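Field reference: sequence -> structure
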Amino acid sequence: MAANPDEPENVEEIKLILALEWQRGKWDGSDGGKGGYGQVLANMAAATRYEDDGGLRRLVEDMADPKRFSLLMASEEDIERIKSCVTENTLEEGFRKCSGMVLRAMGFVERGL
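Structure field:
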């Protein structure tokens, strides 16, 4: 069971996958460059922005930022779709949807870890 009952059970595993992909993205440029997901990774590593109450919501908001997401060369349709992550019915739905969209736009499906 998750430490916070408002978080999905495997949130930490998903965060780890995201962090590893963003780290690789910093090396190969697939994180979007300056202002991209490397900044979200830095916030995650600082362990301040996403670790307290409301942290998962802030993570979703940062991942769903259309300016940041557009740095991944996402389609206009996906840029519009990612905005809805913060307004999904539940935080878990928004987190999962946003995580999947970011990973797909970074080429995770094709490359894996």
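Note: The chain has one domain: 11-104.
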